Amino acid sequence: MTFVPGAVRSRTQMISDVTTQAIEVRTLTEQETAVAYATLPMAEIGPWLEQAFREVAVYLERKGAGPAGLAFARYRRAGDGLFEVEAGYPASTPTSGEGNVEPSDLPGGPAAVTVHVGPYDAGESAALLLQAWVREQGAEPVGEAWEVFFIDATIDHDLATWRTEVIQPFRPRA
User: Fold this and answer.
1) What percent of the chain has pLDDT over 90?
2) For a pLDDT cut of 70, what percent of the chain falls above it?
3) How confident is the model at residue 68 (pLDDT cuts 50, 70, 90)?
4) Would you state the pLDDT for residue 1?
5) Is it the case that residue 154 has pLDDT exceeding 80?
6) Is the pLDDT of residue 7 over 80?
7) What is the CATH number for 66?
8) Which residues, other chains included, contact 171 with Cβ-Cβ below 8 Å and sequence gap of 6+?
9) Are residues 77 and 134 in the same domain?
C-alpha cells in the first residue's frame, strides 16, 4: 500500500469505553521539545501530568521558547506496574533544560494518527490499535506512540471528556 500524507482510513472502534476515530496518515516535522520525566504507577500519572505540564510551561515561557504547541505525553511500560512517562511541550527553539526539565524531541516522518475521547490511561488501547493498523498496511511502527492533549489538564479534571490525538510513527517496508 502507498501511504499518502493526509489520507484518512475510515475505522471507528469502541475500545474499553473509549471512542477511537478514523486513522489518518501524516508526515510530521521533527520538533524540539522540553519535557519532564518520571517513573510512576498508573494511578499517579494524572496528578503528575498536571505538575509536569505546569513546570515545563513555566520553564519555556521564562526562556522565551514557548510553549510552541499543545501538551503531549509519551509512556513506556517499565515493569512491575510502572510506566516511564515523558511529558511536556514543543519548544520554539532548542533548550538546555533546568531542574526537572530536559530537552527532547518528537520525531519527524510518516505517522498514523487517531483521536480518542476518554482518560489518558485508555490511550494505550488506541496506541495498540494504531500499531496493529500500521502492520496491516505493511509498515512497521517506530518508537513509542505519544498523545497530544486538546484540553488543559491543569483545568479540565473530567477525564471522560479529554480529547487526545494519538500518534504512532512508522517506517514503510521496502
Assistant:
1) 66
2) 81
3) very high
4) 36
5) no
6) no
7) 3.20.80.10
8) 109, 110, 139, 140, 142
9) no
User: Do 43 and 94 belong together in one domain?
Assistant: yes
Kindly list the distances between the CA atom of residue 119 and the CA atoms of 17, 75, 103, 173, in Å, as whole numbers in the listed order. Answer: 10, 14, 26, 33
Based on the fold, state whether residues 11 and 56 are members of the same structural domain: no
pLDDT of residue 153: 56
- Does 49 lie in the same domain as 101? yes
| Residue 171 vs residues 38, 109, 124, 168: alpha-carbon distances, Å | 28, 8, 20, 10
155 and 88 together in one domain:
no
State the SS3 of 5-50. CCCEECCCEEECCEEECCEEEEEECCEEEEEEEEEEEHHHHHHHHH
Which is nearest to 48 in space by CA: 58, 36, 60, 59? Answer: 36
Q: What is the pTM of this model?
A: 0.84
Domain that holds residue 157: 1-26+111-118+127-174
Q: State the total domains in the chain.
A: 2
